[in-house]
Amino acid sequence: MMIAIITACFLLLSASLIIFSGNYWYRQKAELLTENARNVAESASDLLSSGYISMFGEGDSIAALGSSLSLISTSIEADVFLCDAAGNVIMCRDFLVDGSAVFDACNYHDSLTITPDVLRSALVESYSTVSNLNGQFDEAQFIVGEPVYVAGNPVALVLAVAPVTDAIVNFVFPISQLLFFSMFMVMLFAVLAVYLASNTITKPIKQMADVTKKYAEGDFTPRINLQRNRNDEIAQLAASFNAMASSLAKLESSRRSFVANVSHELKTPMTTIGGFIDGILDETIPPQQQDHYLKIVSQEIKRLSRIVVSMLNLSKIEAGQLDLNFTDVDLSAMVLNTFIMLEKKISDAKIEVRGLDLLGKHLVRADADLLGQVVYNLVDNAVKFTPDGGYIGINIIEKEECTETQILNSGVGISPDEIDRIFERFYKVDKSRSAHSKSTGLGLHIVKSILELHGGKIYAESKEGIYTEFVFTLPKVNDGLQ
What confidence tier does 168 reach under pLDDT thresholds 50, 70, 90? Predict the structure, then answer.
């Protein structure tokens, strides 16, 4: 396509140059004929006006005028001749024969008839046209006419005639040869340059197309490799392409992990529920133990419900379909109620809770249900990952622009390599911190998403083997969302 465009541009340039050259030659030829015809007409007018010659006189002046016609005709490659007012040729370049004036020796001009329209126009003022004089010439001719005045009256006419086709071809042909030769050389260079340039562009694009097919098949390992010193748009595209591939690979890994986790989490309680219900129905489980197993079934059903709700909430948040109902919420009361709901777990693990007795009233502007989910997830995580006999610390601080909540628990902590990823969707710590946790890796991502909807933020700090602390902020009632 690039070569075709370059070729079209060269052809257009060539055609334009040839046309402009032809027009230029045409104007120059017309000016040359007009100028010489006018000079002859002025000379004839001076000689006739002075009485040196008559229209059909003889003498040196007549011979000089005939010699001038012959010289001018030869030098400008045209036929210059003199006609009377009736259109009869009275003097031409063949007027002189062996140095003597001959009036009727030119058979060619004697047979030439000047058309009335040329006579009428040329006897009045300067005249020029391109014509074959009604077929008297085999091809079109430049015809230029200049009147000869005597005492203010036109008495004769000087005509200059030159062929058009041969003359313009002889002028344009050398230019065309030079032009097409130059164009051919430039085209060779352009084709080579276009090939090299297009190859540097199309090669990585072809590579991207091949790699994209691999991505479509689920293989995200291939990458685009370019020259290290390349720093153009293609290099930027390749870098973006590789970054996209890394993100897709990461997302695919998270998706597979998520599917595996969810499948396991759904399968385990469903198997438990099905087994216990079948045991009750076929009386494998005795009546006195049925209440105990029904409680287990109830807990597993609630667990399934939490998983489904988490997935639905995440879907609504990402689709922007989660409507928030902002009210003034007492954050301290919400934290206290959450610890009360988890009191049995805390008591069974003999966990010490620090800071609850120091909490005052702290109002924030939030959706109470969603904020309750945030607090419950964070406190529940702290309880899960606090070893028996450990402690949980809670603190709420009023700052200038926000209310900050700190939830700290003792325990194994989180490694520095993983702490920056714990809020990612589907991410689940696979070390001892999560060894006893039944998690799909959605809880902290949902917490982060809910807080961002409220204009807040969350981050975590941890020291392995000592503690983990989650800190989240919310706008105050004054500065909160309305």
Answer: low
pTM: 0.46
10 Å CB burial of residue 392 (0-12, 13-18, 19+) is buried
In DSSP terms, 28 is beta-bridged to: none
Instruction: Specify the higher pLDDT residue, 32 or 173.
Output: 32
Instruction: Express each pLDDT in 173-214 by its tens digit.
Output: 777 777 778 878 888 888 888 888 777 777 888 888 888 888
Q: Which residues pair with 159 in a beta bridge?
A: 81, 145
Digit-coded pLDDT (tens) for 42-98: 888 887 777 655 554 555 566 677 778 888 888 888 888 888 888 888 888 776 544
Torsion of CA 406, 407, 412, 417, to 10 degrees: -50
Among 87-101, 188-202, 388-402, 430-444, the range with the most confident prediction by mean pLDDT is 388-402
Comparing 100 with 82, the larger pLDDT belongs to 82
pLDDT at 334 (0 to 100):
92
Q: Could you tell me the CA-to-CA distances from 336 to 79, 374, 379, 448, 469 in Å, in that order?
A: 119, 14, 10, 21, 18
**Which H, E and C letters describe the chain, residue by residue?**
CHHHHHHHHHHHHHHHHHHHHHHHHHHHHHHHHHHHHHHHHHHHHHHHHHCCCCCCCCCHHHHHHHHHHHHHHHHCCCEEEEEECCCCEEECCCCEECCEECCCCCHHHHCCCCCHHHHHHHCCCCEEEEECCCCCCCCCEEEEEEEEEECCEEEEEEEEEEECHHHHHHHHHHHHHHHHHHHHHHHHHHHHHHHHHHHHHHHHHHHHHHHHHHHHCCCCCCCCCCCCCCCCHHHHHHHHHHHHHHHHHHHHHHHHHHHHHHHHHHHHHHHHHHHHHHHHHCCCCCHHHHHHHHHHHHHHHHHHHHHHHHHHHHHHHHHCCCCCCEEEEEHHHHHHHHHHHCHHHHHHCCCEEECHHHCCCCEEEEEHHHHHHHHHHHHHHHHHCCCCCCEEEEEEEECCCEEEEEEEEECCCCCHHHHCCCCCCCCCCCCHHHCCCCCCCCHHHHHHHHHHHCCCEEEEEEECCCEEEEEEEEEECCCCCC
Cα distance from N-terminal residue to C-terminal residue, the chain: 58
